[in-house]
Design a protein that fits this description.
With 332 residues, this protein is of the alpha/beta class. Strands 1, 2, 3, 4, 5, 6, 7, 8 and 9 form a nine-stranded mixed β-sheet that branches. The longest helix is centred in the middle third of the chain and has 28 residues.
């Protein structure tokens, strides 16, 4: 039955629903998922209900227990996926269709699956930073950047994941030294979000900042923020012994999953070529399937080699990375 469902989804043929709805708890606004869920409903006749749960998702799922109406969790960042897994509110999903996701982008225990990726890159001033001047993450600790770097707090999930990746490459001693070096190069105390740092570059407060790639697409689509985006270009730093750090948006099935069969159909659909194109283009991200083309806008940002450190390893090292960030008082 599952193979028939997947074949129909991939071929665009509608199927009678095994259940008439799927309920999602999402860290992303429902409108960002709507093009995706609309396409699924058109293919299957299954209604998708999305609840935006910005904070307290783990607590909510724990409180609801086996009575939870949620079938799936959709969220961003391996930290949040790992948090939900560690709470014991998910179930493993063994399914051939999901095996197309690269192993380093899915949970070793099959409890969460990456759907799109984004790179943690450097936004560089077009006027004050030369082409190719930004090369590696290690280089960000070089004194040549003193007073020139802006960043959101390093205790933010995105930066903790980057520090965990650094830890995977270099170990604790070198990671501590790197964090101290980057902190010494800050133009101001960490605050705000990734787009706020680009605004600071536009305003002349700093020359480079750390950020996720998809924010460029979001800024270009905003009347006010387009000026910020036009002031910078994307640079893809890499680790000296690796590639550019990437993170994921992902999906997981809850332990309760009252509509499990329908939820599985949606998970299968999410790794179809059609869904990969829709999801990546809607959110200005990269498909996890290499053969699915990136959007024209995203392609214009340039090519890079993703780091091959497994997100399972990064998730495992997150507590140690956070400890180092707090010990050097990075945000203080």
């Amino acid at each position: 039955m599952r193979s028939l469902i997947l074949a129909a989804l991939l071929g665009g043929t509608a199927l009678p629903a095994l259940a008439d709805e799927v309920n999602i708890y999402s860290h992303r606004q429902p409108e960002l998922l709507k093009p995706l869920t609309d396409a699924f409903t058109e293919a299957t006749g299954i209604t998708v209900n999305t609840a935006f749960v910005d904070k307290g998702m783990v607590e909510r799922l724990r409180a609801e227990g086996d009575r939870s109406p949620a079938d799936l969790v959709m969220t961003v960042d391996v930290a949040r996926l790992g948090e939900v897994k560690d709470a014991g509110v998910l179930q493993p999903v063994e399914d051939e269709a999901l095996s197309v996701i690269p192993q380093n982008l899915r949970d070793a225990d099959n409890q969460w699956f990456g759907l799109t990726t984004r790179a943690r890159i450097v936004y560089a001033s077009k006027d004050r930073v030369g082409d190719g001047e930004v090369t590696t993450y290690e280089d960000l600790a070089d004194p040549k950047w003193k007073g020139r770097i802006c960043t959101r707090p390093f205790t933010n999930d995105y930066n903790v994941a980057l520090a965990a990746a650094y830890l995977a490459h270099h170990g604790a001693e070198k990671t501590r030294a790197w964090l101290e070096g980057v902190k010494a190069n800050l133009a101001k105390q960490p605050e705000g979000n990734d787009r706020g740092q680009v605004k600071s570059i536009w305003a002349g407060e700093c020359d480079i900042s750390l950020g996720n790639t998809y924010y460029m697409g979001q800024m270009l689509a905003d009347e006010e923020q387009k000026a910020w985006a036009d002031a910078v270009r994307i640079e893809f730093p890499s680790f000296e012994d690796g590639g550019t750090h990437v993170n994921v948006s992902g999906v997981a099935m809850t332990r309760a999953a009252p509509n499990r069969d329908a939820a599985l159909q949606l998970m299968q659909f999410l790794v179809s070529d059609e869904a990969q194109r829709i999801y990546a283009e809607t959110n200005h991200e990269f498909p996890v399937l290499d053969h699915v083309a990136r959007s024209e806008l995203v392609q214009g940002w340039g090519a890079f080699t993703p780091d091959d450190v497994s997100l399972n390893k990064i998730s495992e090292l997150r507590p140690d990375a956070l400890t180092l960030i707090e010990e050097v008082d990075f945000d203080g």
